[in-house]
Here is the input.
Amino acid sequence: MSKKIGSQTYKLNNNVVIIGNAATVGSKEGAGPLKKYFKYIESDDLMGETSFEKAERKMMELTIERALKSCGLTEKKLDLLIGGDLLNQLVTINYSARDLSVPFLGIYGACSTMSESLAIGSMLLDGGYGDYIACVTGSHFSTAERQYRNPLEFGNQRQTYSQWTVTGMGCSILSNQGNGPHITKVTMGKVTDWGVKDIANMGAAMAPAAMSTLTAFFKDTKTRPEDYDLIISGDLGKLGSDILKDLMQKEKYPLGQNYVDCGHMIYSNEQKAFQGGSGAGCSASVFNSYIITKIKEGVFKKVLFMATGALMNTTLNQQGESIPAIAHLVMVER
Amino acid sequence: MSKKIGSQTYKLNNNVVIIGNAATVGSKEGAGPLKKYFKYIESDDLMGETSFEKAERKMMELTIERALKSCGLTEKKLDLLIGGDLLNQLVTINYSARDLSVPFLGIYGACSTMSESLAIGSMLLDGGYGDYIACVTGSHFSTAERQYRNPLEFGNQRQTYSQWTVTGMGCSILSNQGNGPHITKVTMGKVTDWGVKDIANMGAAMAPAAMSTLTAFFKDTKTRPEDYDLIISGDLGKLGSDILKDLMQKEKYPLGQNYVDCGHMIYSNEQKAFQGGSGAGCSASVFNSYIITKIKEGVFKKVLFMATGALMNTTLNQQGESIPAIAHLVMVER
Here is the structure.
């Protein structure tokens, strides 16, 4: 009965298809290297609203609507909405779910939320729990910055090893029928903490968690990095993905040219985002644009998508605690 | 293939058994009407730690350990830990999960987290995803009060319609084999918001969500309140559960003597908790003590356990938003 392979990985027996998807991003992301993959680029950071929190919510609601539209569904067909965001108490998705009026499960995995929602959604569909499930997450630079770091008005200098929170949203519609990329395996991560305490250095805090999940997946499935067309982490950024490469080398699973990081890809050097993008919207928007497009085009046939999240809050950081992190992985096939 | 009944309810086809459980509470809860059901009462609010946040985490870790012990398991046997808490970014469970080192899914449903975790955990087990899953949540008066309302040192007067955040934790261990109460049906709630803006009046904010989920369950299963031995809501408190009774009357599903509320039960009038208990720890500790004990004793054979959660945060409340709420339901049978 159990679908478990090895220690942390599960094999989906039934069809789990990504039948629809949408990504919405802000103007900075829309001016970066991935701009041709972003169908929806919003020029107004405030989305015509009176607060950044309301803007973030509007962006999420629009993205769910756009994902539903991409596969010709209305929200009435949805059995379930799964997702979260970076704001305290997940208010972006809570208020979006209120306006959608569909059964809802709120989850929190920080920047790992996209793969966490895809993991839960695909296991529930595979188990016979519904026909259509929407998975969504995202972030907004201006809400995250003032909640996690400093008020925007403070105008602080950024550390060279810091990342830039992506203003962006991604939504995938999963179904047990239809056409599109398939989710075939799921690895749920363990919380990993190697003692990093600097909240500007998210890449270093999250790399060990990414290593833990990726190594578990290779061991569980008895495969190696070279068996996949694309291995893509969430938002380790340049520094974090370099650390992951070092760690995987030590684990005897060296990552080659097929490994990239969403955070590393989303901004160019000229955009002054230092180590690259971060935030739940980073992997969510890259997955629901570039990755799905390339799978559909046949460029990638077997993809490991692993979003990574840092699980601290400001209170515990100020109490001197280190930063725990997690990474969840889904395998997506053409 | 689909296990859906009606619009929001799912029937579990396989064995999903609550094989172990534990509840830990603070001294105020341990002095209340349910004291004889609480096996673990902690006299020190700080649990010997240097901050309330660390105390909350220690209480959660101990409760997971106690639940595992109650069924003779070690954490190594766990396929998954599911849960959340009320602190920003779920730091109580994130740090607990770090120390346990098992695959982990963080969820957030505010005070509905106990039934949300039981719902996800039982669907995953039923679908063949693992053999042992731990579901946990809880809250601490002193961390919640300073995060959501006022610093303790402020010494504010409490409104007569307010509730008292329970210092308590509850953990259930689910398995696809063994003895214990069974989870047989699950109803996932929709976010409901009737416009309440007063963050002291959680009962009024959450009652419409409870009505929505309970009515959906009765319609989906073609049953009525009198078909169950116990219908128990999470933490509506006295006022909120009176509102729910009114609303259910209007929906033509009047609730009788078999309906009670965890928040209403946990404190006596003399304990000055006004409308009763609230917080994720309220329903979690009552479910994992009183309810499971009474099911095992045969007093209750068919129970509807529905935890309720208010999904706002302080920022959006200060921006003038109303309070969205949700309720998830699990049916537990002897």
The two ends of chain A are 26 Å apart (CA to CA).
